[in-house]
Amino acid sequence: MSKILIVMSAADTWERTDGSSYPTGYWAEELAAPHEKFVRAGYTVDFASPGGVAQPLDRHSADPEVAGPDCAHYVEHAERALREFGPLLKLEEVDVADYAAIVLPGGHGPVVDLYRDADLGRLLTAADSSGKLIGAVCHGPAALLSAVDQDGRWVFAGRRMAAFTDEEEQLFGTAEGAPWLLASRLREMGAEHSGGPAYQQYTVVDGTLFTGQNPASSGPLADAMIAALAG
């Protein structure tokens, strides 16, 4: 099987506890780096989101002072990949059997919608039970929270994983006013969360679950998944 599914959020704003709205979107490197690596390795990559909605770019990920000197490349690649793919698939219409792996990039969108999306939960539960690879980076691991079984138990409880840390959220300036913090929530739900230095590459592999802490972890996450798929 030679297809990879990248699942994007459909959210463009993040409602804060003070009633304000924080603009959000996909983070260019977290989408582009895995896409580029999977395509180079010979995989076909599909994009899906809730309702097939095309999420905008998070403009922070196009700012070299925030996202680093390579951000223009990632923005160009991500925009071209999405444009050439065309309308996104609707999550409710996706058959997980068509894919070798599911990848969940970040931006803050997943903490807005994907963490409670029932269609995504169904896909992730089926993917995990059938031994397919699942990758999530930065805020993407929030989407894993959608996977609950018939008894309401979280499918990924007890699994080792990385995610954007509370420290990184604070350094980014978005911790205050956040309805909840991702790393703390994952631990509360039973994950064995661990983290590395802020904004430095850090990935965790637990069986078929591959997670990365931040944008810098996007490429290494894809490399690890490609190696596992080939192995």
TrEMBL record:
One of its GO terms (cellular component) is cytoplasm. It comes from the Bacteria. CDD domains: GATase1_Hsp31_like. Keywords: Hydrolase, Lyase, Protease, Stress response. GO terms for biological process: methylglyoxal catabolic process to D-lactate via S-lactoyl-glutathione; proteolysis. Residues 30-222 form the DJ-1/PfpI domain. It holds the Pfam family DJ-1_PfpI. GO terms for molecular function: glyoxalase III activity; peptidase activity. Belongs to the peptidase C56 family. HSP31-like subfamily. This is Putative intracellular protease/amidase.
